[in-house]
Amino acid sequence: MQKREEHMSSVLIKNESRLGLKLVAPAVGIIGLLVIYPILFNIYLSFFDVQLNGTKTFVGMENYTDLLGNPRYYHSIGVSVIYLIGTVIGTTVLGLAAAILMNQEFRFRNLARGLILLPYFAPVISVVFGWQFIFDPVNGIYNHVVVDVLHLTDTRENLIGNPDSALFVVIVFDIWKHFPIAYLLFLAKLQSVPKDLYEAAAIDGQNAWGRFWHVTLPELRFVIATVVLLRIIWNLNRFEDVYLLAPNVETLPIFTYYQAFAGIVDQGVAAAISVIQLLVLVGLIWLYVRKVLKW
Amino acid sequence: MKTKTSLFVAGTMLVNGLLISQLAHAATVEFWTAQTQTDRLQNIELLASTFEALNDGVTVKVVAVDENEMATQMAASVAAGTTPQLIEVNSEIIMALGEEGVVDTKTHQDVIQDIGKNRFHKGALTTLASPSGDYYGLPYHGFIQGIWYRKDWFDEKGLAAPNTWENIETAAKALTDKANNQYGILIGTKQDSYTEQVFTQLALSNNASEFDAKGNLVFNSPATLETIEYYKELAKYNPPGPQNWRARDYYLQGKMGMFFYSTYIMDDLALAEVAKGSLSSANFKELSGGTFDPELVKNTAFAPIITHKSAASYGTLSGLVALKTKSAENTKATKDFIEFMYDPASYITFLHMAPGGMNPMLKGIAEDPAYLEDPNGVFKLYGADKMKQIVSGFDDIRSFSVVEGKTFPASGAIFAKSVIPRMIYSVTIEGKDPQAALDDAEAEMKAIMGE
């Protein structure tokens, strides 16, 4: 009897695992086709010089050595790092501040909550045009106010065009455009923090800062970590905002574009760059998940 | 009225054509055009429909592809096996494509033979010649670049026309008044093709070039260095920060003394309506575009030739490129369609999309009375003689890719990678040393040529 039952259960287990395999097969197939295959083909292409008509010439590591010997590549990595640090910290801090503010009771709170999301919803191209008009050196309102109205300076500045300030403008633009998503995630979590935790902290003699430090922050820890992770992934690959607003800010994706896609597409070089970028991204995320999040 | 009639004619022919075409076997011409504006596309669609009506069983599929996207899209379509039969794009991209082995030079030869080699402007045809004497494309339309300037301001200050290096610099200095938001000149300082176009004309006038007649790279020369240094001087009188052709709006607003531009500006200057359009943009139809000065055409003069060590006129052209296709029927249909596009009736319809900006590459078209009657009356405003003078420039336009009648397609690849614009940007905006920037540019050019 017992034996039969054992036999039954092992058959059941087998059947179940077979069913399991069948159920995940479509997903595995799709991922294999759309993710694994392109990655492998990409690695393969990175060792070739590819002509438009499909002719491939094996060049070994040449695409990689060309890339790693190019000083502009390292410059763009530096720019990317500054851009990443600035935007990730900026959006997280601003998003957190906005979420805490919007978690308080006040009149028109719902309206304010909605309005905060606007920059995130507006199409990139239209807000980029808006910013360009604002900072236009000859006709823009910024220069009009600073030079003609307030007489703060005599010289008109092209803040977006000037390479010294362009990176700064691009960072501010990204923070302004993307902090709402951080805010949204923080606010959702804040609303689920039990009130009695704050009350208990107040009884323990904690002031507002102490309550933030000992209750809000630990409660938000994983949301903050998620926001930071998402922002790193998005912004390491961020192209359109930077390229449309100030194409002279050469972050890694912009450099890739100029190097590989401007003019006739250099598919071998493009493949080599993306292989390196993939390795960097995977490495960064692994490090972050293991060491910072300790997942 | 004219459009209505032609629409009707085309429509009738289209219906007839459709009925017959079902009997004949099918051929397809997929035509990628760089003309993405709606009104221009409608015009080209009309031409395509007319051709379909005249040729049984042929389908012409018009696809608009942004000029900056053309090379990328081509790469994708060739890889996917869906290469179009015909594209229309600028000469630099044509030369770069030619080197990729996807161009059907045989069809080009056939068309040239049918139309007659002598009917093409010689300089235009040479621009698209391959090193082996084939043609990577057929010249279709082109523009001449030069300096457009405020004649009234020049007269007021007693300045000479900006046709030499000295005159340009003197005038730029005299007309700049930054405290009052006035700028002397517009030259390109952004990392895009406008910068290369302005620089090329100045470099050619200083006898600087990319290649010598043997094809050696001679870009890193004292003449080029001198041009860069001069360019840096001129950039002082530019509006603040990196600029490209879009800054021409400052001229239309009366805030700028002169600017490098192509003959594409002619209808903008001439027509208040068009000027309004250019001040806003295709994207913002509601904007009325501020004030327009109706006297601007009268007060504007054009200096197409700049002289320093030699006289240089600069222009660039767009061509039709037939691509390799496996089907003989498609190749035949493509050849027929190209020849149809050169037929005076359809050719003039096409060129009238941008009077002055799109100039004919076949001799005789510019004198055609039908050509001089453009729908907006732009040519009447400038006069037939001025038009003829502009078009004649195509007999001896110069560029970096043609040296003593020989073509160096590597120049197209260098253009495509924006080597020169990035060099200019680093000198004028980032303050890099001209010789260091020139050395870097030369190294990049060598890398592109695979040396």
UniProtKB/TrEMBL annotation, chain A:
Belongs to the binding-protein-dependent transport system permease family. It comes from the Bacteria. CDD domains: TM_PBP2. The keyword Calcium does not apply. It is a multi-pass membrane protein. This is Carbohydrate ABC transporter membrane protein 1 (CUT1 family). It comes from Marinomonas foliarum. GO terms for cellular component: plasma membrane. GO terms for biological process: transmembrane transport. The keyword Methyltransferase does not apply. The chain crosses the membrane at residues 21-45, 73-102, 114-134, 166-188, 220-237, 257-289. It is found in: Cell membrane. Its main location: membrane. Residues 77-288 form the ABC transmembrane type-1 domain. Keywords: Cell membrane, Membrane, Transmembrane, Transmembrane helix, Transport.
Automatic annotation (TrEMBL), chain B:
Residues 1-26 form the signal peptide. Pfam families: SBP_bac_1. Keywords: Signal, Transport. It is found in: Periplasm. The keyword Transport applies. Its main location: periplasm. InterPro entries: Bact_solute-bd_prot1, SBP. GO terms for cellular component: periplasmic space. Belongs to the bacterial solute-binding protein 1 family. This is Carbohydrate ABC transporter substrate-binding protein (CUT1 family).
